[in-house]
Amino acid sequence: MNGTYVPKHALGNIKYIKDLDLYQKEKPFQILIDIPKDAPDQRFTNLVYEDKEELFRDVRGKEHTYSLNDHGFTYRHHDFGFDKYKDRSAVEAYYLPKIEQFIKDEVEDVDKLRHNASLPKGTMIDLDNPTDWLLPAMHAHVGM
Asked: Fewer CB in a 10 Å sphere around the end CB: N or C, the chain?
């Protein structure tokens, strides 16, 4: 022991999307491109956030007790033997295929993955189409 105390749990704030009646009428959205000047709705977002204090638990040594099916997340330690993350061609040629195989091995019934590169640059995203690729959420969200 080095004399530094490390707490088992810690309190911290997470920004959640606020539960608004508005979301019963329209999906929460955030637009990350320029809105055409003639569009009737000029909003870039309808998101409203609220901070909530949460307890973060130290799970070290208990990682094996969490499963994707039961908890919605899991912990895996894996060394892909890769460190050229700034070299896009190396990432595409070596790292992405390794990640794809890793996900197929870990997640039941996955036979195909869709990469960000599957949409050409400048592609418009149809927010009414739930199969369109979107960026991962940047804030915590529940039940939406």
From this structure: N
